[in-house]
Amino acid sequence: MSDITIKAADGGSFTGYLASPKGGKGPGILVIQEIFGVNKVMRDLCDGFAAAGYFALCPDLFWRQQPGIQITDKTQAEWNRAFELYKGFDVAKGVDDLKAALARLRGIEGCTGKVGSVGYCLGGKLAYLMATRSDADCNVGYYGVAIEADLGEAPRIARPLMLHIAEKDSFVPPAAQAQISSALGANRHVTIHVYPGMEHAFSRVGGQHYDKASADQANARTAAFFKQHLG
Question: The whole model's pTM is what?
Fold first, then answer.
C-alpha cells in the first residue's frame, strides 16, 4: 500500500493511494473520494478491495486547491473546510483527473486492464459522470449528490452503472431522487437500489448515519457487481 503519482492531462501531477492485491494480479477499482479527501475511510476502502483481489486506487481530487487533504467528519471546523473544498471543486477537471487516474490504474503491472469505479457522496456523482464521460468498464455510486443536474448526459451511458440511493438523504431530496429514477430507470445498463429510511453516508463506517445492515447489503451488491463485470 503506497502513494503513486498520476500525470494530469493539462499538466502537473497529483498523487493517489494504491492498494494492491496479495497475488499481484487482478482487475482495478478507482475509488472516488468524499469531500474529506483521501482520508482513512478512503484508504480503508481501498485496502478492503485489495483484500478481495483488486488493485484499488484513490486519487487526490482536491490537489488543485490543496494537495493532501485528509480530514474527518468529526468536528464542525472539518465540515466547514470540506464544504469549502466542495464548493471550490471544478467538476469537469475532476473528471479529467479521474480519467487520467483510470489510465494509470490500467497500466499498473499486474492489472488485467478491466477497471471500474466506485464513488461516495461527491464521488457518487463523479462515478455517474465516469459512466457518461469515460471508458471505465463499470461504475458504482453511493448516495451521489447533484446527479440530477447532469441527467442530460444519461443517453451516453453504455456500460453497467449501479446507484445506491438513501431514501432520506438530506442532500438528495425526494424530487431529485424522482428525477434520477425517471431519467435512468429505463436504461438497461443502470441498476438503482433505494435504501428505505437511510440518510446520506449510511455506509461510512464510524459516521453519524452509519447503518451496518444497509451498508452490508449495499456492499454485497457492489461486490457481486464488480465480480460480474470485472472478474
Answer: 0.97
Q: Which helix H or strand E contains 5, and what residues bound it?
A: strand 2-7
Instruction: Choose the catalytic residue: 97, 137, 164, 200.
Output: 200
CA-derived radius of gyration, the chain: 16
* Containing structural domain, residue 212: 2-230
| Mean pLDDT per 10-residue segment, the chain (231 residues) | 93 97 97 98 98 98 97 96 97 98 98 98 98 98 98 97 98 97 95 98 96 98 98 87
Give me the number of domains the chain comprises.
1
Question: What CATH number is associated with residue 183?
Answer: 3.40.50.1820
**Is residue 200 flagged as an active site residue?**
yes
For 78, 109, 189, 221, the CA distances from 146, given in Å and listed in that order, are 22, 36, 20, 23
Q: What pLDDT digit, counting tens, does each position of 129-173 carry?
A: 999 999 999 999 999 999 999 999 999 999 999 999 999 999 999
Write the DSSP symbol of residue 152.
G
**If we measure between CA atoms, which residue out of 115, 5, 103 comes closest to residue 63?**
5
Q: Which of 169, 193, 209, 216 is catalytic?
A: 169
Active site residue 137: no
